[in-house]
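Q: Predict the assembly, please.
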Amino acid sequence: MPPDPSELAALVDPEKGSVARRAYIDADVYELEQARIFARSWLYVAHESQLGGPGDFVTTTMGEDQVIVTRDRTRALRAFLNSCRHKGMLVCRAEQGRALSHRCSYHGWTYRLDGSLAGVPNLADAYHDELDRSRLGLTPVAQVDSYKGLVFACFDPGAPPLADYLGEMRWYLDILVDRDDDGTEVIGPAQKWRVESNWKFPAENFISDFQHAQAATHVSAMKTQGIYRPVGADGGTQISTEAGHGLFIPEFDPDSDNGRQAMDPAVAAWLKEKGRAVMDRLGELRAFRMRPVAGTIFPNFSWLNPILFPSIRVWHPRGAEAVDIWSWCLVDRSAPDEVKDAVMRGYVRNFGPGGMFEMDDSENWQLSTRANRGWMTRQGHLHVGMGLGHERVEPDRPGLAGHLISEANARAFHRRWRALMAAPSWAETPPVCTPAETVSYIRSRRDPADGANNGVVS
Amino acid sequence: MTGGTFTAPSEDAVVEAEVGRFLSWEALLLDQGRFEEWLDLLTDDIDYVVVTRPNLGAGQNPAPRWLAHLDENRRSLEQRVGRMADGTAWAEVPPSLTQRLVTNVLVEADGHDHRSARAELTVHSALLVHRCRLEDEVETFAGRRLDILRRSPDGLRLARRHVTLAANSLPGKNLSIFL
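A: Predicted assembly structure:
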């Protein structure tokens, strides 16, 4: 009997601060996610700096669908399924390059940059001129758009435009990608590595989990570099916005030297010089006092920006127990060469698969996933109730706020996940509540008797 | 560095054997987790890089900078070794079980006297690292190394290492070991 989407959607219980372990390993859950999350959501596919002119392309995946992302002759951004309409061979196997057409290596079908089918061998004699090439172009991805250099694509023509999808999160993303008129560029090639973890573990880690760094996982890396300064739960906020996006933001005192001694002198000097201009553009709060360490755009695009080694990454789902991680460094285009070099080295030494911080994450995610292979283990639940009921609206920033150290954002991610998993289409997805409405909803659903038992479900 | 323009290996068997011994000894230290002794084999100006390997297409413009998997100097390597001392560098707790195989050692014939007291040798070799984590997680890192070894009063020392893995996606869930 096919699985009931409503039953799978109900595996998360953000009202109680709990989630069934099956959500992180069940094959039926994964399959439904492909249809209802990845086939409908805006997914990150490229950075505009990789697509400078007509014919520039990258290949990537959206969920597990192979896609080509390119600029056509009019410089418009396009995305297509990277699969020939004849027998399905991948039309392009390079990860990046420039081509004015794409020719399949199997039977030679050739496609233009707009995806249309230009040439087919033996069109007259073997196909008897009966082939309607106009109907056999590469299958286009319904929507492609860019937000300040970040290119996203979406299979679902019924999904809202990218700007609406990102919504209030744009106000926070601007801290990363709108520091000046020149914008950002990626430094590649991508670091790629596979972790045998469900994709939601890293996605949730980057949307909600400030705590793990100072509580256990990254203590060693911070102490080694002399930057271990744990903060309290209210040392900042974590914010979730509509559509399940979120980020966590320690409050940063610009007059402290917090982290500066770990910074390359060239980077520190440039930052200081740049700070005034960024403040004029974004305001003092975003320019100086917010240090958005990490965030996730639902479902699987995250960024990281601790002590100014910005990076972006995608958590490509590869089955319920595997995720391919692709990561790039992100820098201001206008930064001087020595700053870009220092940022790149700082990133590589601390993050990526060889980074002193990031290397300690993969085993957490992998073994958290693997534990659920056991039948008994898999019947149970995980606790995601930190700070439940203490969500609020902050006057100086959009979105739903929780303490910096809480799981408010993980619960927001789950609420969004549940809404999409249960809905047959975008049109039937429940409308997103305002932050104030969500605060009321959460508080109304708390059972006072739950207080001592926060998030524990038998 | 001559890198891809390497045309002629040295035929000095004595130097080649000496270099081979150095690399085998280095591999043994790493496999046995003797990281402080390994650091002693590095020069103060050590430059240590493990590059990424994209699948490139035609017309790919070379980028001005290239993101690596590791891009280390003496200080960052000392930090990496140092943090393993107190047992909370979780990626290596418990330590990976490794077996390094270093072969195909060739010294570039660059016209210099490789036996002189301040000689620098450009060395190519092949590397295979078999790694097992926990119970059954086996990974294989294979690639080539391009090293610069420098003579010192205490013997050969590693001044530069450039590792090119035969892999696009890293064949492991992290790179918590030295290659």
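DSSP finds three helices and six strands in chain B. The radius of gyration of chain B is 17 Å.
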